[in-house]
Amino acid sequence: MREALFVKRNADKWKAIEENPTRDPDELTARFVELTDDLSYARTFYPDANVTRYLNGLAAQMHRGLMQNRRDDRNRFLTFWQYELPMLFRQSHRLLAVSAGVFLIAGLLGWVSAAHDNTFVRLILGDQYVNMTLENIKKGDPLGVYNSMDQGTMFIQITLNNIYVAFRTFIFGLFASFGTIAMLFYNGVMLGSFQYFFYERGLLLDSILKIWIHGTLEISAIVIAGCAGLTVGNSLLFPGTFSRIVSFRRGIKQGLTIAVGLVPIFIMAGFLESFITRLTLPPVVSGSIILLSAAFIIWYFILYPIQLNRRLNP
């Protein structure tokens, strides 16, 4: 993009920022993020131009305002969850749809494959798990695997494993998104074949009411981690108006922020799996936990970012 066109497209925005200062922390942060993006672009393509020096001075002025508004670390913590993560995630909604689509298609393929091949479930889940579950079904406790370990140990192991899976899904995005797609596909096939295994034995509803107590958060977080990985991969494949290295740096920052934001989700999913899933709960209680978990995911990662974006960028 030519410098003149870049200035023409953004001059009104910069003028509004300069002439209409605000002390609202959220609005100030929103302006600062947008301004630093413009500054990064200008430094890359017009390093010695007047517009770069102008943006640098304006950004420094806004940075001082941010420091004055930041009262303590708790305010920074709240700003991250209330503003930074949702606004970054809003930019990745299209990739979230791609991630969810890949996972759902893989899940359907896993279900169909298990239905047409008696050996498929054992191939995906392993003989040990299948044999153990069949033995538990005979005992009248098909999901007894959740009672087989101490709660505290189970919580730590499951949480760390889920975080590992999520960050691996994110990191594999470095392979031009194909690694992330492969991870999403594998996990989707595993889930589809797993659910068919219980459906074939007339235990689908029982498994849903039990497994999805924690699975709603866990599976949603894996799909969102896939979105983070695709964000990184697509920054390499489709740099847009940025140079490929600048686009990649932006993609890494955005994807990593999303991945880090998933840690509390995995901690809660690990807690539910270790302490709640093992309990024999009435269907209405299990269903309520599942619905509340799904409502939180939809609100925080989809609806709230859209609402926040409309409020800050009317």
TrEMBL record:
**Keyword hit for Zinc:** no
Q: What is this protein called?
A: Stage II sporulation protein M
Keywords tagged on the record: Membrane, Transmembrane, Transmembrane helix
Bilayer-crossing regions: 95-114, 170-199, 211-232, 252-272, 284-306
The secretion signal range is: none
